[in-house]
Amino acid sequence: MTNELTPKFNPTEVEAGRYEKWLEADVFKPSGNPDAEPYSIVIPPPNVTGKLHLGHAWDTTLQDIIIRQKRMQGFDTLWLPGMDHAGIATQAKVAARLAEDGILPQDLGREKFLDKVWEWKDEYATTIKEQWGKMGISVDYSRERFTLDEGLSQAVRKVFVQLYNKGWIYRGEKLINWDPKAMTALSDIEVIHKEIDGAFYHITYQIEGRDEFVEIATTRPETFLGDTAVIVNEKDERYKHLVGKNVILPIVNRVIPILTDDHADMEKGTGVVKITPAHDPNDFEVAMRHDLPMINMMNNDGTINENGGKYEGLDRFEARKQIVADLKELGQLVDIKPVRHEVGHSERTGVVVEPRLSTQWFVKMDELAKNAIANQTTEDAVEFYPPRFNDTFMQWMENVHDWVISRQLWWGHQIPAWYNEAGEMYVGEEAPEGEGWTQDEDVLDTWFSSALWPFSTMGWPDENSADFKRYFPTSTLVTGYDIIFFWVSRMIFQSLEFTGKSPFHNVLIHGLIRDEEGRKMSKSLGNGIDPMDVIEKYGADALRWFLSNGSAPGQDVRFSYDKMDAAWNFINKIWNVSRYILMNAEDVSADAVSSALTKVANKTAGNVTDRWILTRLNDTARRVTEQMDKFEFGVAGHILYNFIWDEFANWYLELTKEVMFGEDEAEKDITRAVLLHVLDQVLRLLHPIMPFFTEEIFEKLPNTSGSIVVAEYPKVRPEFNDDKASEGVAMLIELITAVRNIRAEVNTPLSKAVPMLIKSEHADFLNAVSPYISRFTNPSELTIAKDLAVPEQAMSAVITGAELYLPLAGLINIEEEIARLEKELAKWQKELDLVNKKLGNERFVANAKAEVVQKEKDKLADYQEKFDTVKARIAELKEN
CA 282 to CA 299: how far, in whole Å? Predict the structure, then answer.
């Protein structure tokens, strides 16, 4: 049979070659329909340092879900892919690879070293694209970008020059964060503060010309080599007599002044503070106030320089050991007190960062930050999901410092500044004319070019670019909360400055993926998960289902193989349902389905279960679409799961067997059509989340054509809504479930027929569906009436709209039945209390939507009826 599915879902077979077919069919490109509303996403660019990690798999999955759904909804969608050059990380990786062969970057020189980095980029970009393919992301590769592409480089140069000409980019000597391993400056947000074990070293400095000492405490004793003053508070009576005098630095014997400054805290430590302006941010500010000299005592690689005297050439931490030993020998080391404190580490290399005076390029942030803050009060404000991350963004912008943008690297956008021997500097988009000019050797911080990503990838600075005019601003950005400062904030203020618009309308923030114990995944813990390993075992669809359903926006998620097993089982369930339907409806045409659905909607054919499942399908499509629009993918997935597994597979499919095993061929045709339609719509609803297997099944449906990628997304069809059918089948399901529960309680298997009595105002309906009741409950006798005598010895259950009795004389214990019913009574009392509390809340009643309040009132009436019926039954049993 051509439409046959294999007996068991095999992700490897289903996903093999599928992505390539999509690319060949160009289904991921924009529709080009000028009447369609544009919807665009630019992918958060992974850096070319290696394989994708789970966090990036999360980004891409959520974005792919959004873009696939919007494509199916008829939007003119563009998802633009690209990659980031990742200056520090990539240069370090390539240098490490060369070191394995005993080669240093300096041995090659800048140009040849960059050739090696481009080779690395090509290798790993290919790997990343292969992994994107395995993830199934539906990007338009004809528009692929890289942050070092000429077009993007042109944008970078233009932005740099314009900011420089406005005075917002400047070159100066300031204290910056220095990475001694990468030998480059870092911005504040590239520094991770970690708690480590350290010590306070208490050292004495002698007062010049006196046999008197002052005591200072420091966690970095090696920095005393760069001290240029000590300070005390002018209100500190202990040291007033020393102000204006000098101290002698031990070992180096340099004389430095004693000054007063409010930075010295009388209540903290000894009240005397050493000032090392070139190696501490607070000391730098003190030095600026007092016009102190600034002595840099460290080389780029973290070794002591010529200002360190006999310690020159030693690594900073080795120098610390020797200095401590020498101070101890001199008798000027008073004490060493262990301390647990936070120390800055490089986000890229992991080494301890050194605050260091250095000449660098900076972006002046005050005006850019003000613009970004002000924009959040306008109609062009970026919407954060969850909204609390707007506060995170605003707090950072309100407290932002000038951004150091120069990096002492070779890989990246070389700063467009040139110098000549006359000491002149030229800044421009192109090199200056004439001889004797040398370009600044530093490159720009990677985030400088990444900040332009939403518009530089669209053709800017050519504002007449077709893509820029049509797809910018982009619609939605998806990223983790850990790079709000690094990337999101910078994209916003740069876009506002250079395009006058926010770069995107929405920012969906997700959390971090942690291990099953809640720990952050890291190499040191050895708890990292390679998404490609997960795909190899479970398939991309299962991984995507897990990633989309793992948590609410902004929340972390714990990776779990149990959850992966559950995802695979869910797919296999749908696979088996599809296989059953295809085996029973292989020749049903699209016209036959359309005709059958019209008859069901008009109630000229079909039965109540057909009308029920179509009503439930409508409700599912509506609710899923609502949740997807709010980026609540977990909620949408939960709704889909419940409908597919419970209502469609466990109930409707089973209920149809009453028809499928019957003799009425016309009724079978209707049922086949409804089964096919619901399956078709389920696949479409699932496709954005799980694209591979939904396409595999979709193309085997006898009444469909083309790719599901561009199939129409389900819409609510009002003609299918049938509240009476929905309520009726809900009562039928509740009744069947209640019978099964009663049988289980008294250990009476379904194979044993037992008498059944049903008392209900809806007796006519229940008699009409009695074949279903008989098939699923196996009564020896079935009595359904609006009024009937209640047997004394019977198990009972109260459901919405009916009372159920199973006379099981000899099988039940009256006292146990009363005890069971009293528990049920307590349950309904609890439900009544909850609803009454909600309806008794004036704020809820006043502020909630009318339909929400009415829903609670309907619950109250239903629970009260059940409570009263159970209470009356208990009374009857007690009387007998």
Answer: 21
Phi, psi of 727 (to 5 degrees): -65, -40
**What is the gyration radius of the CA atoms in the chain, in angstroms?**
36
**β 474-480/417-419 pair status:** unpaired
Neighbours of 102 (CB within 10 A): 7
CB of 630 closer than 8 Å to CB of 565: no
> β-strands 754-760, 406-407: how paired?
unpaired
- Among 386, 395, 403, 350, which residue's Cα sits nearest to residue 481? 386
Q: List helix spans (H) across 399-507.
A: 446-450, 453-456, 466-471, 489-499
β 417-419/438-439 pair status:
antiparallel
Q: Are 223 and 280 in contact (CB under 8 A)?
A: yes
Q: What share of the chain is helix, strand, coil (3-state, %, to 5)?
A: 50, 20, 30
Distances (CA, A) of 283 to 214, 249, 276, 358: 18, 17, 6, 15
Q: Measuring CA to CA, which residue among 800, 790, 631, 783 is closest to residue 729?
A: 800
The 8-class DSSP code of residue 714 comes to: P
Overall residue count recorded for the chain in this entry: 880
Sorted by sequence, the CB contacts under 8 Å of residue 18 that are 6+ apart come out as: 136, 692, 695, 696
**Cα separation of 166 and 186, whole Å?**
24
pLDDT in tens, 683-718: 999 999 999 999 999 999 998 889 999 999 999 999
Q: Are 135 and 544 in contact (CB under 8 A)?
A: yes
How far the first Cα of the chain sits from its last, in Å, is 63
Q: Could you give phi then psi for residue 703, rounded to 5 degrees?
A: -120, 25
pLDDT given at position 1? 38
Of 822, 825, 823, 813, the C-alpha closest to 747 is 813
Residue 671 in contact with residue 659, Cβ under 8 Å? yes
Angle at 770 between CA 766 and CA 774, to 5 degrees: 135
| 466 and 431 Cβ atoms separated by less than 8 Å | no
pLDDT at site 811: 61
